[in-house]
Amino acid sequence: MSPRPQDFVALYARLAMPVTDEDCGLRCGPYNEGGVPFCCDPRHAIPTAYQEEWAYLQAHTDLWRLWEDDDPEEIRRLWEEIPRYQVPIVCRGVVHCQREFRSLVCRAFPFFPYISRQNELLGLTYYWQYEDRCWVISHLGRVRPDFRQAMLDVYRTLFAWYPQERETFRHQSTMMRRVFGRRHREIPLLHRDGFMYLLHPRTEALRPVDPSSLPKHGVYALAAMLPFEDE
Ligand code: SF4
User: Fold this and answer.
1) 208 forms bridges with which residues in the sheet?
2) At what angle are helices 145-161 and 163-182 packed, to 10 degrees?
3) Model confidence at 55, in pLDDT bands (50, 70, 90)?
4) Taking burial as the number of CB atoms within 10 A of a residue's CB, which of 35, 45, 79, 181 is the most buried?
């Protein structure tokens, strides 16, 4: 079943809450040029929108435009990477953000739905490439439980609308198992049951974990060694 542009209104309403109670952009922004949160900076992350979502956004806001680049090779590379049912977009900048018109990809960052080898949606994990920059990844215990449930609900709907999207995240989960396997690391999983686990990349065995015991990364690992971590 293909969605209509207005069907995205319900998904936006379902995933309207922030990822954490604190404004995580204020936590990571100071570490990026210009104080811009990393996921709002196209030098670090280029969001995408589903084709019908893009039609909805174009009709209701001037916040977004299609992504462009001076380098034809870069344009070709990115369009090849993105599924046909999505388009790359950029916003007018963090100071112009209209929260009600944030794309689903913006709302979900830094997480993606983890699909097991048995093709089961187990929960959420994160884009590990951002471990060094994203404050949330170093503070998984701060993720709001209602965000976790809402994101899973939204992706169940998206998988029904775009069956290929489930395959995309199945592949992404496979890639994460490979990368973490090579690094002899377990995968942090915000399970759909509401608890947090470490998942073994080869067997997918789950080990309950206290999120506050998970390692911090990048500058957040350094900050954690200071007497007042949040200063
Ligand atoms: S999700 Fe991560 S990168 Fe984006 S604003 Fe929050 S801490 Fe920064």
Assistant:
1) 197
2) 120
3) very high
4) 45
Cα 25 to ligand 1 centre (Å): 5
Place of tokens 């309950």: 208
Round the average pLDDT of the chain to a whole number and report it: 95
Distance 28 CA to ligand 1 centre (A): 6
Mean pLDDT of 43-71: 95
Closest CA relative to residue 55, chosen from 7, 126, 94: 7
Quick one: tokens of 8? 């995205």
| CA angle (99, 105, 106) in 5-degree steps | 35
What is the best residue among 105, 109, 124 to mutate for testing ligand 1's pocket, by most ligand atoms within 8 Å of CB? Answer: 109
Backbone angles phi, psi at 227, to 5 degrees: -60, -40
Structure confidence at residue 225 (pLDDT): 84
Residue list, ligand 1 pocket, CB within 6 Å: 19, 24-25, 27-28, 37-39, 109-110, 134-136
- Atom 2 of ligand 1, residue of closest alpha carbon: 134
Q: Ligand 1, closest atom to CA 27?
A: 7
Exposure pattern of 196-223 as b/e (b: 16+ CB <10 Å)?
bbbbbbeebebeebeeeebebbbebeeb
Predicted TM-score (pTM) of the model is 0.94
Six token digits for residue 155: 């992706």
Residue-wise pLDDT tens digits, 104-145: 999 999 999 999 999 999 999 999 999 999 999 999 999 999
Alpha carbon of 118 to ligand 1 centroid (Å):
31
